[in-house]
Amino acid sequence: MKHVKIREKQSNAFLVAVSAVVLGLVAGAILMASIGSNPFTGFWFLFRGGLMNIERVGNTMATATTLMLVGLSVAFAFKTGLFNIGASGQMLIGGLCATLVAHYVFLPRPLYLIVLILAALLGGALWGVIPGFLKAKFNVHEVVATIMMNWIAYWSIYYFIPAYLKGPSLETESASIAVTQSLRTPWLTKLFNGSYMNLGFFIAIISVIVIKLILDKTTLGFSLKAVGSNRHCAEYAGIKVNRNVVISMMIAGGLAGLAGLSFYTGYSRNMQIGVMPAQGFDGIAVALLGASSPLGVLFSSLFFGILQSGKGFMNAMTSVPPEIADTIIAVIIYFTATSVLFKRFWDAVLKRQGDKAKKKEESAQAEVKKEGE
Amino acid sequence: MKKLTVALCIFLLLGTVVFAQGSAEGAAKKSNLRVGMVTDAGTIDDKSFNQGTWEGILRASKDYALDVKYLKPAGTTEADYLKEIGNLVDAGYNFIICPGFKFETAIFEAQDKYPKVKFVILDGEPHSADYSVFRIEPNVAAVYWAENESGFLAGFAAALQVKEGDFGFVGGMEIPAVQKFNWGFQQGVKYANEKFGTKIVMKQENNLYQGTFDNVSAGQQIAASMYDRGVDVIFAAAGGVGVGVINEAKNRAAAGKNVWVIGVDVDQYPEGLMPNGKSIILTSAMKYLDRASYDMIEAELNGTFPGGQVLRFTAENDGLGIPATNPNLAKSVTDEVAKVFAQMKSGAIKVAAVGDGLFK
């Protein structure tokens, strides 16, 4: 008689994410239906708006770039058990450093790009390392510290832009960066038919790969994850918890700084005062939907990129007012951000199926036994 | 699993029901002109720039049975604006109105990118991002207002009404349109003092720019400290910041204080209404935004679209002024304002558009 071993099935991240997205879209559809619009055409135009032609694909990718880097930043901090809610501030400082470089440093293109990237990386890392240090040294909660750092960045920009980077006539935004000093390149702009697609996308892709390697293949990654899954256990195992917290926040900050780079020198080419970049918070949803894994973040940011750049076209083609469109996007984000619920749901479903199968197996075995007698 | 299937079926049914409603969306329209608008910072019901422009568009759509639509960009960068302009163009809108100087660089790009689409920019004219090139193509009309004249009229009216007191100014961002309101306002008050013997005082400390158009609480704080310093009337040319000023004035008026606000861009009288039915809005320095968008649409329909031109809406062409009805102004005051307005029209009164010898 053969014994079949039934493995306990666990829901995987992909299933969870897909069901969250589907339910989010359904909720959005119900909302659309309730204001008297046809959800099918609504979603049709939403996705066409993001992907209809090569220019729109480029815009979607440019929008996704920033989200990808912020999502990666948040996901990386998550892995160490930290909640980096300060990506907005890190973006601002990273963007500010990059903007300064763009206005004042003139070098051959390849060298210039390296300096530009390093500037943004360092700026963001600085804004990340401070809360990390406070957490490690004084156990100041990183949520509080990073939110406060957001506002310090916000008001620093408020002072800095008019004082040093002022445009020719406007007090409220920095002078526009020349295309040759930005992340945009003629061949990419041409390839994507005049879209905002820029080199930031490649920076984001490389970052995804690097972070994946760090997390999966290095001792540093192992100890970061160990701290994340159980701080005390990690400490007991001889891992320097505090050092890891600081390093984690530093890298997370650097990633958000790169997001600032892609946004302020690639997508928009100038910085405005009095604007807290919303991407810093959207990135949290990106990380949650991507189950805090680098590849997950890659795909979820592309999804959010489609939503955000397709939204306007949906507005233009249907009678869904812009405010409702924002609500629909928010509903989808809400469902995706609560993907933990779907994980529980699928775990329960799979467990029940597993139990059923087990019972069947047992009864079958009992019958076999009976027959044997 | 069965339950899930049932739920799905119900949902699909719901979908088809709604489909039937949805198909009624596109009603037949007469003209093939489709008018789109991209909003500036703030919402469509901002009681100011966006709303004023949109009301004009709606009026035109009623009179000429046009298809109209507004889109709200995600941010206020050139990329955000161009994206929404692209959305409107791809959706078949061929006449796009953009309210605000912030659209200048976006329109500069869009005029070449979409040569078949007509654009109207309010409060600005297209130029390159580094201000090196100013160029306006035949598919673009740019509209400016002489805010200084509007500010003059409001300042003059308020001075005549109050006769004796202390006036202050709260601006939003320090941009030309707001500065011109400020400078015109000061000239208007001075004119009343010199020619009509009013005793209005203005001090540098009561003349400032908050720096944004949306910080309501900052507006309230600034207004509070001005009123504490003895200011009686504040001219708020500051969007959302002005809403804060109005709120503070309402609080004080409710507590029995005699304070006033002068509104901006549109007739803000309804914004200043209190439960007792009175409004703390003395008068408003208006730019006839709705008239601009309406006139431009009308011109296009008549085939007289002023493409490639930079237009100025002034007192001379009735493009600005104080509201038609001012319940808080005496009849004698509005009569005098009408006289001054006529003199402005004829050129007898000239209002400087620069701040020489004035605060800021």
CATH names the topology of the largest domain in chain B as: Rossmann fold
Q: Quick one: how many beta strands of chain B? A: 12
Q: Give the terminus-to-terminus CA distance of chain A.
A: 14 Å
**Count of helix runs of chain A:** 15
Task: Tell me about this structure.
Chain B: Its main location: membrane. Chain B: This is Membrane lipoprotein TmpC. Chain B: Residues 35-351 form the ABC transporter substrate-binding protein PnrA-like domain. The complex is a heterodimer of chains A (373) and B (360). Chain A is mostly helical and 373 residues long. Chain A has a domain at 66-305. Chain A contains 15 helices and no strands. In chain A, helix 3 crosses helix 13. The longest helix of chain A is centred in the C-terminal third of the chain and has 34 residues, at 339-372. Chain A is globular and about 90 Å long. Chain B is of the alpha/beta class. Chain B has 2 domains: 34-145 and 293-297, Response regulator (Rossmann fold); 147-286 and 330-346, 3-Layer(aba) Sandwich (Rossmann fold). In chain B, 43% of the residues lie in helices and 19% in strands. Chain B has helices at 2-22, 49-64, 78-90, 104-113, 147-162, 176-196, 216-228, 240-254, 289-301, 331-346, and strands spanning 34-38, 67-71, 95-99, 118-122, 140-145, 164-171, 199-209, 233-237, 260-265, 281-287, 310-313, 320-321. In chain B, the strands form 2 sheets. Chain B has a 6-stranded parallel sheet with strand order 2-1-3-4-5-11, with helices on both faces. Chain B has a 6-stranded mixed sheet with strand order 7-6-8-9-10-12, sandwiched between helices. In chain B, helix 8 (240-254) links the parallel strand 8 and strand 9 (260-265). In chain B, helix 3 (78-90) runs parallel beside helix 4 (104-113). The model of chain B is unreliable at 12-29 (pLDDT under 50). The interface between A and B is large, with 47 and 45 residues.
